[in-house]
Amino acid sequence: MSIPSFEVNLPSSETSEFSSQVHRLRDMWRLVTLNRKVAFGLGILVFFVLVAIFGPIILTKDPNAFSPDILSPPSATHWLGTTQTGQDVFLQVVVGTRVSLLLGFITGLVATIISVVVGLAGGYFGGVIDDVLSMVTNVFLVLPGLPLAIVLAAFLPYKGPLTIGFVTVITGWSWGARVLRSQTLSMRSREFVEASKASGESSMRIIFFEILPNEIAIVAAELLGTIIYAILAETGLEYLGLGDVTTVSWGTMFYWAGNNDAILLGAWWWILPPGLCIAVLGAGLAFINFGIDEIANPRLRKEPGPKVDKISKTREVAA
Amino acid sequence: MNIENMGANSPFIALNDDAVSIPLPPAVLEAIHLRKYFPLRQFKLSGPRKVVHAAEDTSLALYPGRALALVGESGSGKTTMARMLARLYEPTSGTILFRGEPVKGNGRNALKDYHHHVQLVFQDPFSSLNPVHDVRYHLKRPLRLHGHARTATEETEEILALLNRVSLSPAEQFIRKFPHQLSGGQRQRVAIARALAAKPEVLLADEPVSMLDVSIRLDVLNLLLRLKDEEQLALLFITHDIASARYFAEDTLVMYAGQTVEGGPSEEVIQRPRHPYTQLLISAAPDPDRLGPDGKGSVTLPARGEIPSLINPPGGCRFHPRCPHAMPVCSERFPKRTELGGGHWAHCFLYGDGEANPASYKPIAVTPSRSSEGRGKGESGNHASPEVEIQGNAALPSDVSAEG
Amino acid sequence: MTSIRPGEDSTATTNKLLEINNISVDYYAASGTVHALNDVSISLERGKILGLAGESGSGKSTLAYAITRLLHPPAVITGGEVLYYPRSSGGREQQRTPRRAITRVPTRPDTTPAPTDAESAGDGNQRGRERSGYQAQNSPGDITEPVDILQLTAAQLRTFRWSELAIVFQSAMNALNPVLNIGAQITDVLRTHRPSMGADSRRQRALELLRLVGIAPDRIRSYPHELSGGMRQRAIIAIALALAPELIIMDEPTTALDVVVQREILELVRALCREFGMALIFITHDLSLLLEIADEIAIMYAGRIVETATNQELLRQPRHPYSYGLLNSFPSLHGPRRKMTGIPGSPPDLRAVPAGCAFHPRCPMAFEACSRSIPMLRASTAETPEQLVACHLYDPRFNSGEIPTSEDFAAKYEANFEAMIGKRRE
């Protein structure tokens, strides 16, 4: 009689020829591309990133160059028309993509890093540390962004992306910190955290290697949300003229367009392109966000429906 | 199906009626009068604060190569005891002795040293493993932390050896798996392997099989027994299932609402329970052997009622509101330990208010050394251990070779 | 107890309450189709307790949900019928029983009758007999027509549920609404299903129910969080009893409870079934409980029933190797301390069920036929035709040798165990 071979028949249908890392990446890739929302959003994001990287390289002309065609609608020479001073709108949009994207992504990243550190530390350590960090978080949460920005911009001698970035980070990190704190609080009492403690792991290691990997989905969602917020905030601040109006970005385009009464003059081609870019990029990021929710929470995933008719409904009643 | 022949390496012990006491090796981990109160969060500025009296004056000892079962229902304090012994909670009062020395120091290094010797296996295999890490990570961390592997090759070797020891073979396949790819029994084995990676002397198992499927529980229990014998681990087995305590452990300790009520050799405690609570537990446990003539087993429980609140527990013996034999003195104070002979003791006024020697809260070795191959606990190599002394009340029966 | 065969015809004198024929349930997941139930058939008589035992993946909970039509997509019932035999109608009026204060709540006027005087005396068994006797006395025109639960319309289902059939879920303690007190939850049920009852009679009924399950009447306004685990379970049972159903399904009702409370709940459930002649389907993984409480036990494995027997028959002579292994997985409290092996391996992942008999990789008795064809549930031996088993060992076409006894099982399991220990030592 042979020994039952249960020990070899692993319950999972996956074979183990592949290393587990490759396997996980493959699963993630499949999830990401199968999910239409994420695929769509990623497509948009990738498009804009490519434009930001390669646009200014391909189009070498100076976006600030004046030309005699003042306020002309889109034509063959100027694909998106020109501004009040004859600058090519298309060039400006393309070049401005790099600035806007870079600023938005960097400030979003910095704000997220701060919120991760504060939220996780407060949630894990509890006690006095948590009380202090929570208080700080709550203070920053109620700070009004726009008035603060205007005040700071008025006082700071340097007007430019750094100021705007600074203000955005200050007003953007606290919400994520709150979310992560409560998530960490619930993670803290999970048994695998206790098991790590019983193994002798250090707190830092537990926070960043045991708890944080379980919260990646939230952090990613928060990162994307903060980036959207940053892009919108920065555009808004630049529109108010609080940025460096000599650089070319979507926001400064709004500034100049507003200053020169573009709408009154009917120059829709000046306002629409940057606005559309912001809207589309924001939508793309939002789609990725929804998709992440579905990936992270299996219950939200829509399983493909049953392909068989529900026999119970079509059968004749016997009685 | 009685035990006919015991293989020399069999994990099971023969039990016959002539119990002979043999010298015990010194206890590797002891809890002396441990007490744990959890303060409740209250918005009070002054006045007495409410606490949860989770564990009261509990003492136990763990010996190498022996298993002690801690039996109780929810709220009995057994999980609190395990967490205190694993130093995840600090006791409110009382001492823990490791190899006779009190453990001290709350610093990270002191705790890490302690965890080198004492490890905890958790109840829920589905949440005690981190879902984002594979088996290799789970096993390599304790190896690294406790200095059992310094290079990557050593690490892999050790991990493969560990997986083989817990019968997860072929080990090369398991090393890359993630928890969600494993079944419950396999996960629990990984958790045991993780505990073993630290090469501890004491293994605290908190209900290790209650969340597993019935047919694989015995597999995991037999694994633990095998490890206990092969490596002379001291095991603390926490369970609510008194039948598995009988199967698994040489000694049993029964707890109720944070107080220890009875203890002694498992067979003694289960076949001749003395404390009314133990009697209640045993009569409530499912027992197919007691099917009546109508084909059904019907049980009238000797006591009614529910486990009391631990915030305002009943005074004295906490079982007295439910006890069919309660006396007025039971609500006034908690009875001292009374020896009942053969290492069996109870805290119950029905048997007297025995004088307990506070320094000697140790269970007795009453395992027979007589098996058909003469294999007994005392032959496992601890020959240098001192003879167990007879102390205590002269009024005790004379056949007791026990510590009072 | 009369023999129970799946698919047997019903007659006017039958005591049959529920007949499940060839039910199959599939789950459609992205990774493939999972056959949670395969061709499951079993029946249940009035007033009897049927125990469904099985581990994870056995399909026992799925069966309960299928019967009550609580399955949600992606789970789909792909075949079978669930025939329910309602009580025959009669022209009798509802009569109050003066000796006991318990009243049967009137159901729809055109079906279920109220208890007779005869039912107020004696225990449930006698009442059961009276009832079936009553049915036999009926004119042939009163033959009870079975109703396929799976075919009921939504409106019919709504009236059917709770009046005829109640279900107590796993983790029933979470099934209680935390913001309503338990009295309100009981009266809520009554108000929904018996709109004719006045507020006062609802309250009376709620108090009655609480008393039945052993909750003090002054707790009627308690919220679930103020009750202990055992009391919450009793409250759930009270809600299930509210309309005096014919059949109660309990899915792991005592798993989360302590041993002592579990015992109390079991005794309560048993007493209630006896008193009201209710049938009970008790689903659990703890076979030792079923041996004490159930009349008949069905053991499930990987979506099929592998054995059906009375509790005594099962204890005395389990037929299926899995049943033996399962019985042998519970350390005994007072019997001799035996070597216990459990069953090697683990329950199969339903996405990758072994070919042929799903148990064969773990079975110490397996032979070639086991991996080739799926055994059907049929009578085990000529001497014990009511004990059904799905195993090739009992099929003379496949097994020309002896039918195994408990000793054979024991020997094979032990030999297996020794071989595994030997293998591990290599």
Describe the overall structure:
With 319 residues, chain A is mainly α. Chain A has 13 helices and no strands. Chain A is globular. The two termini of chain A are 51 Å apart. Chain B is of the alpha/beta class and 404 residues long. Chain B is 25% helix and 18% strand. In chain B, the strands form two sheets. Chain B has an eight-stranded mixed β-sheet, with helices on both faces. In chain B, a hairpin with a 2-residue loop joins strand 4 (93-98) and strand 5 (101-102). In chain B, helix 4 (152-165) crosses helix 6 (184-197). Residues 1-19 and 356-404 of chain B have low confidence and may be disordered. Chain C has 426 residues and is of the alpha/beta class. An eight-stranded mixed β-sheet of chain C has the order 6-7-8-3-9-10-12-11, sandwiched between helices. In chain C, helix 7 (229-241) packs parallel to helix 8. The chains are: A mainly alpha (319), B alpha/beta (404), C alpha/beta (426). Chains in contact: A-B, A-C, B-C. At the B-C interface, helix 6, helix 7, helix 8, helix 9 and helix 10 of B face helix 7, helix 8, helix 9, helix 10 and helix 11 of C.
Salient structural properties:
heterotrimer; A: 319 residues; mainly alpha; 67% helix; C: 426 residues; alpha/beta; 8-stranded mixed sheet; 4-stranded antiparallel sheet; 13 helices; 12 strands; 33% helix; globular; disordered N terminus
**Topology as H/E string of chain C?**
EEEHEHHEHEHHHEHEHEEHHHEEH
Provide the spatial order of strands within the biggest beta sheet of chain C.
6-7-8-3-9-10-12-11
Shape descriptor of chain A reads globular
Q: DSSP helix count of chain C?
A: 13
* Share of residues in strands of chain C: 15-25%
Largest sheet of chain C: 8 strands, mixed
The chain-level structural class of chain A is: mainly alpha
Helix content of chain A: 55-70%
What count of helical segments of chain A does DSSP give? Answer: 13
What's the helix and strand layout?
The complex is a heterotrimer of chains A (319), B (404) and C (426).
Chain A: H1 20-34, H2 36-58, H3 89-125, H4 127-142, H5 145-155, H6 161-172, H7 174-188, H8 191-199, H9 203-211, H10 216-239, H11 250-259, H12 268-296, H13 311-314
Helix pairs in contact in A: 2-3, 2-12, 3-4, 3-6, 3-7, 3-10, 3-12, 4-7, 5-6, 6-10, 8-9, 10-11, 10-12, 11-12
Chain B: E1 29-39, E2 51-62, E3 67-71, H1 78-85, E4 93-98, E5 101-102, H2 108-117, E6 118-121, H3 135-145, H4 152-165, H5 171-174, H6 184-197, E7 202-206, H7 214-231, E8 234-239, H8 242-248, E9 251-256, E10 259-265, H9 266-271, H10 276-284, E11 338-341, E12 344-346
Parallel strand pairs in B: 3-8, 3-9, 6-7, 7-8
Antiparallel strand pairs in B: 1-2, 1-4, 4-5, 9-10, 10-12, 11-12
Helix pairs in contact in B: 3-4, 3-6, 4-6
Chain C: E1 16-29, E2 32-45, E3 49-53, H1 60-67, E4 75-84, H2 117-120, H3 124-137, E5 147-148, H4 154-163, E6 165-168, H5 182-193, H6 199-213, H7 229-241, E7 247-251, H8 259-276, E8 279-284, H9 287-293, E9 296-301, E10 304-310, H10 311-316, H11 321-327, H12 368-372, E11 378-379, E12 388-389, H13 406-425
Parallel strand pairs in C: 3-8, 3-9, 6-7, 7-8
Antiparallel strand pairs in C: 1-2, 1-4, 4-5, 9-10, 10-12, 11-12
